[in-house]
Amino acid sequence: MKYKLLIAFTFFVVIANSSFCQNNFRNGFIITLEKDTIIGQVNYRSNTKNYKSCIFKSDQKVREYFPEEIIGFGYYNDKFFSSQIIEGSFVEVLVLGEISLFKSQNKYHLKKDTSVYDLESFSEEVKIDGKVGIRENNRWRGITSYLISDCINNTNNVVSKLKLEEKSLTKLVVRYNKCKGLDFTEFKARKPWIKYEYGATVGIVRSEIQCRRISRSMPYLDDSYSSINPSIGILLSISSPRISERIAFQSEIHFIKSSYSSLVIINNVSTEYHDTYIDLSTLSVPLSFKYSFPAKKYGLYLQAGINYDYHLNAKSKLLSESVTGNVVNTFPERSAFEINKNQIGYWGGMGILKSYHKFKASIAIRYFGMPALNKPGDFTASNSRILINLILFKK
Questions:
Q1: DSSP at 184
Q2: CATH code of the region 195-394
């Protein structure tokens, strides 16, 4: 079953990637070399691709523009790219003002007046007292401190806490432009740095326990046990739309109550009947990264991560009897095997999402693989499950 799911999952990824990543056009514009703005739709792609070119659609005609052909392009209330900073390449414009901030493939750039300064950190080889060592070149801090010193006080302290990342640099450049009291534009200002989404879920679980005996002991155990049960849960999704609309971290808590049973008959000198019962009440905590494909009418997403199971109740029971001729011997009830309270495993899944006015609804299918259901000994038990979930997110 595990290999069939892997094949199906891989097939889904290939189909989804080819079908949904190609034509994600959003309302936008291009600015020609004559400084005319043409309204249309721009393909919403990764920055890596947008640094190289722009796919623009107007009047149902699609054309690819390169940096030497236009001044820039952008999406309404979202990203804007300019070809005026690095020759032969677009850069993302993060802030436009007295000091402007840009982002390219490998570094950030500050522009003040007509000068452009590259911000980058790199390791360099230095020789001290005849010994060669490696140190981090942080010249970018000095550049930044110099550029903001005409309005912000104690710049050395400010810059010492600065990180060479989009959020930290954007906040500082916005702070400087507000300090100067001049007009500025912060692109993506309507997109939050951190976004939280809460949801609830109900589902159906098909779970299976697999037993692998190392010796001939415990012959009363079946090779596998299965159960179908409901599940309920809550979840929290955390993303950063400013950085990426497609990637999110999701944590969940599910409650699952499952029951398994099996009858094993052994024919020797006497006939033995072994009834095994296993009851689990489990709090399951899946943690995952979620990758969403561009959504139109429906959105598709993939998830993968780790899962922690805590068994609130974990019992196994064995009822045995033997029949020899007309004599029936019934043995006292006992535990079939000891079940671990905690398990850690892996999981993956895929889902379809549709957005409504006040909420988003999703149907997802997931696979969980959970080893070490019991302590190592004469046999090993593991459990796996397939879940089909209905998930509701509050907008």
A1: -
A2: 2.40.160.20
